[in-house]
Design brief:
single chain, 165 residues, alpha+beta, 4-stranded antiparallel beta sheet, 32% strand
Length: 165
Amino acid sequence: MEWNFRYKAENLPQKIVEQIADIRVFTLGYCTREVMLQLKKLSAENRREMERVSNEYREVIIAPGIPDEIRNRVQFHDCTVTELLTGDEVLIRFDTRGGFTNINKLTLVAPEIIKQDGGIVGTYWLYQELYRIDNGYELHVLFDGENMPELIVRCADILVVEERG
């Protein structure tokens, strides 16, 4: 409860906190009508800002030129990287048991590695961004693990396969 008091006091605008007679009572869900109206106004402003940011994100990330087949299949969140091979292609294999896909092999054709942090094998694929570039795609991946390794690769094509073992 004490943590909740501090959290509310630290994260609400100071001008609203100053109007709350007892933060403990507020934390239990009670406040004056005036404070409630200000909170509703603040909530509406926050919602509008979130919608603006989400729309901006969609415009950039869901840019034209990336086929849905590729965008929807390059989703390896929470899959563990079991193998990473670089050369004429970048090949990544996954253990998909923790993820949301059965696709366990990603091949980046004609790659140009822009950034490759060490220690990617054994980490979880957390987040990706995929961009269309003149001659193909640029894939940015953030992995969970010590130092949050990253991989950024430009490539001519992206192939995804479910290998049966």
